[in-house]
Amino acid sequence: MLKGLLNVTREKISEITDEPDSEYYGRAEQEINDGTFDKGLWAKALVAAEGKEELRKVEYIKFRAIHLQKNAEKLQKEQLQREAEKLQAEKLQKEQQQRQQAASLRTVQFGFVICSNCAQETKAYYAYCQYCLHTLPKTPTSTNS
């Protein structure tokens, strides 16, 4: 009878989520043995076992294994997200440095500046940006003669 009940419950778990790795089952059992189990899940396991203490441990291990797996997947997704954001920020910073270097070169060679308000390139001898009328910084004129 216990095996039949166990198989039915496994099928329900498989429908809800992928079967957790055996590592998570082992960790859940170790929690029970150490007395460091999740008290809320322990109570939920008693309800799922319909008050039968002999099935409570089985239910707890199943619930806790699923919980551990979901947390591991969530942490992995968050870590991947952080790494992607870091790479994107590094890429943007590199592009910005390249634009600034190109702008500095154009300023020196051709007398252009980049407006700090709209990021448009305009001639350095103007007092205002040609595009947004933002006041431009005073820069020395180009030395091309």
Written account of the structure:
The protein is mainly alpha-helical and 145 residues long. It has one domain (20-123). It contains four helices and two strands; from the N terminus they run H-H-H-H-E-E. It has helices at 2-16, 22-34, 39-48, 53-110; strands at residues 112-114, 121-123. A two-stranded antiparallel ribbon has the order 1-2. Residues 140-145 have low confidence and may be disordered.
- Outline type: rod-shaped
**Stretches with pLDDT under 50, minimum 5 residues:** 140-145
Helix content: 55-70%
Computed over alpha carbons, the radius of gyration is: 32 Å
Q: Give the mean pLDDT.
A: 80
Order of helices and strands: HHHHEE
* Gap from first CA to last CA: 98 Å
Number of strand elements:
2
Question: What is this structure's SSE topology?
Answer:
Elements: H1 2-16, H2 22-34, H3 39-48, H4 53-110, E1 112-114, E2 121-123
Antiparallel strand pairs: 1-2
Helix pairs in contact: 2-4, 3-4
Features:
145 residues, 66% helix, two-stranded antiparallel sheet, 2 strands, mainly alpha
